[in-house]
Amino acid sequence: MNTLQHIAIIMDGNGRWASAKGKNRTFGHRQGAKVVREITKYCAGQNIKYLTLYAFSTENWLRPKSEVDFLMKLLEHYLQSELEVYQNNNIRFVVIGDVEGLSKKLQKLIHAMQDATTQNTGLTQFLALNYGAKNEIARSAFSLYNRNVFAQAKTLKREQAIEYIAKNIENTLDTRGASDVDLLIRTGGEMRLSNFLLWQCAYAELFFTPTLWPDFSAKELESILQDFYRRIRRFGGL
Question: Name one GO cellular component term (predicted).
C-alpha cells in the first residue's frame, strides 16, 4: 500500500460557487473557510502527518482590492476563532509564504497561533499565505547566497556540489522538516499547479476534481484517498 504522509490542496472555486448562487464572491470565501475546518479535522483523524492548504498566493494581490481586503479580514477572523479546534485535535499550525508581505496585525496573529500550537504532535497544517513556489525557491537561494553555500559548493566536484546545493535548498524551503507531497488535489475543475509547491510536488500523485471548494467534503476526500492507494508509485524506477 502507498504511504500517505503529506496532502496538499489547491482550494479553488469559492468565487464561482458564490456567483452560481447569485451571491457576492465573499460569500464563497466564508463557506470555504468552513470547509477548511472540516478537511483539517478529517486529516487529523486519519493520522496524516502534513496537510498544506493554498489560501492566498503571491499573485492573488492582483485581484480587486475589495476582495483582497475581505480575504485578509477573513484570515484574521479565522486565526482568532479556530485555536480551540487546533488544540482539541492536536494540530500544529504553521504558515508558509512570504509572511513579511502581510500586515503587522496578521503577522502577530500568525505568530500567536503558531506559538500556541507548537507543542501539538498530531497533524501539522501548513497554511500557504502570500505564497508562490518561485518566490519560495528564490528566497531559499537568497538565504544560501548569504550563507556562502554556493562558494562552498565550488570546492566540491560537480555531482557532489549539485547534491550539496539541493540538500541545502530543501533545508531552507518553507516546509523544511516535512516530507515531500504524496498527493496534490485541486478542486474547481482547473488542471494546473498555479505556482504551488513545485519543488515538494516533484513526485506527487495529482488529482483534479470539478467540485468547487465550498462543496468539497471529507466524504469526497476519502474517495480520493482510496484512488491514491490504488495507484502505483515508481518514483522514476520500474
Answer: cytosol
Residue 108 is part of a domain; what is its CATH number? 3.40.1180.10
User: What value does the mean pLDDT take over residues 64-78?
Assistant: 96
In the structure grid, which three cell numbers stand for residue 135, read together? 518566490
Q: 192 a known binding residue? A: yes
Question: What phi and psi values does residue 148 have, to the nearest 5 degrees?
Answer: 60, 30
Of 60, 98, 180, 195, the active-site residue reads 60
- Residue 188 assigned as binding residue: no
Q: Domain check: are 126 and 136 in the same one?
A: no
Verify whether residue 60 is a known catalytic residue.
yes
Q: Is 197 within the bounds of a domain? A: yes
CA dihedral angle for residue 195, residue 198, residue 203, residue 206, rounded to 10 degrees: -10
Predicted TM-score (pTM) of this structure: 0.96
